[in-house]
TrEMBL record:
Residues 2-82 form the TfoX C-terminal domain. It comes from Companilactobacillus nuruki. InterPro entries: TfoX-like (IPR047525), TfoX_C (IPR007077). The lineage of its organism: Bacteria, Bacillati, Bacillota, Bacilli, Lactobacillales. This is Competence protein TfoX. Signal peptide: none annotated. It comes from the Bacteria. Pfam families: TfoX_C.
Length: 87
């Protein structure tokens, strides 16, 4: 099991996707940030349903070490704007 699966919101499937873009540690995830990692994941061209706003929230939540549902409303609004600009 990866170190990443110890973080909130990172399950088996997301962990596998992250390993495909060479993100295998918490420090790498934090270094690149949720937005950049999300764009790198999108470049894998997995089914569109995989790239949802919840994934972006999950990445940010993992970086902040909280469940994605606990992100601030301001952070969610920022991420939603980014998501809509990068569909």
């Amino acid at each position: 099991m990866s170190e990443l699966t110890n973080l909130p919101n990172i399950g088996k499937v997301l962990n596998q996707q992250l390993s495909k873009i060479d993100i295998t540690t918490e420090s790498e995830l934090k270094k690149f940030g949720s937005k950049r990692v999300f764009l790198k994941l999108k470049s894998l061209n997995a089914p569109d349903r995989f790239y949802c706003i919840q994934m972006l929230y999950s990445l940010e939540g993992a970086i902040e070490n909280v469940a994605y549902t606990e992100l601030s409303n301001d952070k969610k609004a920022e991420l939603l704007k980014f998501f809509n600009e990068n569909k």
